[in-house]
Amino acid sequence: MKIKSNKLIIEIDDKVKEFLAKNPKTPIEILEDLAQGEYCEVREQVAKNPNTSAEILEILAEDEDYIVRWRVGQHPNTSPKTLAKLAQDEIPNVMWRVAEHPNTLPETLAKLVDDEDEYYELRETVAQNPNTPAEVLEKLAQDGDRNIRKNIAKNPNTSVETLKKLAREGDISVSDLAVEILEDRTK
Asked: What is the C-alpha separation between 117 and 172, in angstroms, rounded?
């Protein structure tokens, strides 16, 4: 990589590139160049940098290295459009980051749990996300895992009807929690 500085071209080594990629004071133009670099460690640091733009993150979302995509999935500047793309990733940990991201749109969260064979952690995280729509939470309330049902009870989008169903279920830890939340909502 070459950086123009005062009309001088400076060759920099990989450790310096990594340092620049980490540094929150690195200009966006440099981050953009680093994001297209050869070394995944540098691209990963760009994906972690708090000043990396949504546009750069969109490019990094297509990175061959899943760790880079995973980092994009947790970055606060990642756009809903990019998160929807990452939701289709083949790596469960990347999808998990999308499921927990506050910018993930309700329709993307719904698609993450369309397949009943999906990973437990993914369903649990979708159940926790406050953007998850009530109809998805109602569907997940049928899940056999009590932790998922407890997270559904805690989710502010869970309908009163779903909470009432959870309050009548056989698992006392879920039903007690649902009753408590119902009481809080009706105060």
From this structure: 26
Q: How many CB atoms lie within 10 A of CB 179?
A: 16
- 38/55 Cα distance (integer angstroms): 19
**CATH classification at residue 91:** 1.25.10.10
Is 134 within a domain?
no
In whole angstroms, give the CA distance from residue 177 to residue 151: 10
Q: Is residue 39 part of a domain?
A: yes
Task: Find the domain containing 12 and state its range.
Answer: 2-104
- Segment 126-169, tens digit of pLDDT: 999 999 999 999 999 999 899 999 999 999 999 999 999 999 98
Residue 175 placed within a domain? no
Give this prediction's pTM: 0.86
Q: What is the number of other CB atoms lying within 10 angstroms of the CB of residue 27?
A: 12
> Alpha-carbon distance 162 to 173, whole Å?
16
Domain count, the chain: 1
Amino acid at 164: K
